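The aim of this short unit is practical: by the end, you should be able to scan a pair of folded records and say something sensible about each. We start with the first protein, listed as its amino acid sequence and then its structure tokens.
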Amino acid sequence: MPKFLHSMIRVTDPDATIAFLNLIGLEEVRRFDSEQGRFTLIFMAPR
């Protein structure tokens, strides 16, 4: 069986995206904000 290792998507509304991903069984496990404030990395994982 294949495994989904990782992926990156760019979104304009992180809160709405996280709410959708929660519905399909993923939860936020870690968040990293860049020092310059240019981006935020949000790590999601299966529950």
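Turning to the second protein, read its sequence before its tokens, just as you did above.
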Amino acid sequence: MTKLVLSTVLLVAMIPSFLMADNWAHWRGPTGNGMAANAHPPVEWSSIKNVKWKVAVPGRGTGSPVIWEQRVFVVTAVPTGNKAVGNDTAQQKPPVESSKRPQSQGDRKGRGRPGGRSSGGGATEMAFKILCFDRSSGKLLWEQTATIATPHQRTHTTNGFASASPCTDGQHVYVHFGSRGLYCYTMDGKLVWNRKFGEMDTRSSFGEGSSPTLAGGKILVPWDHEGASFLYALDKLNGETLWKTERDEPTCWATPLVVDHNGAKQVVMNGQTCARAYDLETGKERWRCGGQTERPVASAVAADGLVIIGSGYKGCFMGAFRLDGQGDIENTKHVVWTLDKDTPDIGSPLLSDGRVYFYKGKSGDLSCVDAATGKPHYMTADIPGLKSTYASPMAAGGHVYLTGRSGTTVVIKDSDKLTIVASNSVGETVDATPAPVDNELFIRGENHLFCISE
């Protein structure tokens, strides 16, 4: 081996691994499908085994961690201990969008209480925070309080007030606290701008949770609730509105997915009335398809000219749609396949290597189908250790990671055949989707942030 070649090999070996692989800058990863192409995290761990570090996180939040190079970002809402009389008391409220909505299919499809529990929250003042940790050590690098406010509405007992995941482009990090506003910080924690959109009125006071999505120079902010619903596209540098599209939809917790088709980008959103796609540049609706179920939560996945969208509360629906449709595509050739049973509710589907993985409702029963045809590889398989799931499945290093609310993550092979590799627990509730980067896995538990690494 020549000195030049040897020097090159040594130089490459000395480059930190985080510079050679993908970041995890969005709650569903680089593609939005829940898959990390270059990560190989451990398949075995416990609350102490293969734990590189573990740090306590104050308050409560179910937004997933996002990672950019040596920074790990999480959000949380921390009770201040004060009892406030007014709502959102820290800042003067801007004008609120009209809450008057026309009677529509979305209004007629049953927006009554879906059976569940709401918890108090409107009488407790909260500090809404973003925390930045050093990836190597878990040391807190900085934290910022975006606002101190008293939530105007209660939330479900399994939800909190910091449920949207942050996102970053490596220059800024964006944090969405819904009714408390959207905040843009530098990577060192300096506030650049913030926007408020009014107050959400969520179905049955179940709380908020849709995450924003970055796309080029835009940040997309979903705003579906029981009032006037919109999809916003803002200039990510200053927060100004580039376009704002009305949506005939009640509350939806899905996150926008941006897909490229024939050189043009589409923004795909789930919805109770219809699944829809919008032109990224203009916000104009391109196509729509009915058939969804009530109070959709799961976000879309896409590959090879197809987008796959599902929902699973008070009914079951999953469909694969061609991206070249126009207008209403229901019952047309642009609907490639559909499923009418055992579809996902809270957790979003995972698309990896031509396979779509999803849970039946909120259970741990797992299905895997071919993305191109919808043909099952297996359906509603019982996964020991998983009974209730909020986190979405994700894939890395030839494996799929399935995380239940108990804190157990079951690792299976990413293949047509169900093969369980390992079962692990961090010993506390986990509702946030884990984030894989390089040879590490970041898990946001109810009380701690874990860095899992061999």
